[in-house]
Amino acid sequence: MPSQLPLRFGVNMFVPGSLQEWRAKCRRAEELGFDVLGVADHLGFPAPFPSLVLAAEATERIRLTTFVLNTPFYNPALLARDAASTDRFVDGRMELGLGAGYVQAEFDTAEIPFPSGGRRVEQLERTVTTLRRLFEDPAYEPRPAQPSGPPLLIAGWGDRLLRVAATHADIIAFPGGWANASGDALQLAGAAQMDDRIAYVRGLLGDRADSVELNLLVQQVVPPTDGASMPDRFAPLPPGAEDLPEEVPSVLVGSPEDMAQQIKERRGRYGFTYFTVMEYNMEIFAPVIQALR
Question: pLDDT (tens digit, 9 = 90+) per residue, 109-156?
Fold first, then answer.
């Protein structure tokens, strides 16, 4: 059943650069019509919170998000302080994206123990409940600009994490597939696998199903000139999908009009209304936004 929520489009930034380059990229994202600018949270990428404050200084309307924080890296009380401070400094334009973390090599580099998947999900839930409790306390300082704190986006794929998201999130984000055990490779989901995940979440959401936004991270945007061969950075397609990559939910292929139609189909079939592309696809995807508006 298609959602009645409006379409939104985000771009996830992760390429380091100078201050001038960062400001220019943020302004360009806003000019192209994106609704949300995200900053990834991986070692080797820019730090999310200062990047978002600088993005707010360079732009006027675009919303700003951590997409998504590696939550086990953060103490919940300190994260609450950073999120509330950032929300104030960006005039309430912030959304707080959280994930359970999945790249073991980053934990090793940071000399942080890499817990089991279940333990990481438990840490995520403790963090979420701490954030909610602190932001709802009228005596808490620093006060976020938004009365109950930034809207919470929770991203993931597995049952345990999606249960947490269905209970607590304002936005549930699907990465388009799942990572292997060490987190160094992503396996893209086919249509039937995405159907299963959406049905699972909707069953958990119950009465909240019409008010919780569903996000899809678009893993690749392939214009007609590239259709004959997928870029090297593209994650492996599901078996049998090599000849019809446009049928993979997290892949868009063809002209802007073709991709706009694929967006409409994913909205109708799965209920996605919020689509995020990678920074390297920002310019390629912009005509799709225009085609849909």
Answer: 999 999 999 999 999 999 999 999 999 999 999 999 999 999 999 999
- Read off the amino acid at residue 206: G
Residue 74 CA, distance from chain mean position: 18
Cα 185 to chain centroid distance, Å, stands at 17
Q: What are phi and psi for residue 95, nearest 5 degrees?
A: -125, 140
Mean pLDDT of 209-236: 80
Predicted TM-score of the model (pTM): 0.95
User: What are the phi and psi torsion angles at 240 (to 5°)?
Assistant: 90, -5
pLDDT at 245: 86
- In the chain, the amino acid numbered 282 is M
Q: How far apart are CA 6 and CA 63, in angstroms?
A: 15
- Structural contact between residues 142 and 78, judged by C-beta atoms closer than 8 angstroms: no
- pLDDT of 246 reads 85
Q: For 79, phi and psi rounded to 5 degrees?
A: -65, -40
Residue 104: how many CB atoms within 10 A of its CB?
14
- DSSP 8-state secondary structure symbol assigned to residue 233: T
Q: Computed from CA positions of residues 146, 120, 107, 185, in that sequence, does the dihedral angle turn out positive or negative? A: negative
Distance CA 203, CA 192 (A): 17
